[in-house]
């Protein structure tokens, strides 16, 4: 069994997941939850989110095959979702948002805040283009970052301020939009060549 570790793939996949998870943009929600329930289990939330993401990376394709959808079709659909997420981030509008969670247990933070529909769709879209081992490394990198943000969300909000968080969201929104276009272009050809 050979591994195909590639720094460029790891970097790109990490940036896609960072932008889709948008943990910095979720700081206000995390702070709101912390105020409501007092304590957030950062370790538990991070581990559960990582498990959901890795499980979906391996089982997502089997689930798709079961319902008769190929990875390229899913990647094109994923490109649309990533594109709309990017529009939300750049323009500061809300196209779709779940209701704010009631409690700070694993359910609202690990899923859907970290490992939500956008993240899971992105994982399968990335799998259509990149080696699995590079995606797993990028998941680990992102989960470490998520854990650090969850642990120090109050400090981060004070350091960045509302303006700082907005600038980061817009920059990653543009990167995410470019990646969505690339993902769409790469997979749409595969669909027509079948």
TrEMBL record:
Protein's UniProt keywords contain Lipid metabolism: no
Chief subcellular location: membrane
Transmembrane is among the record's keywords: yes
Key words of the record: Cell membrane, Membrane, Transmembrane, Transmembrane helix
Subcellular compartments: Cell membrane
Pfam families per the UniProt record, alphabetical: MarC
Transmembrane segments: 12-33, 45-68, 74-96, 103-124, 130-150, 171-188
Domain of life of the source: Bacteria
Mode of membrane association: Multi-pass membrane protein
Similarity section: Belongs to the UPF0056 (MarC) family.
Protein name (record): UPF0056 membrane protein
Species in which this protein is naturally found: Maribacter litopenaei
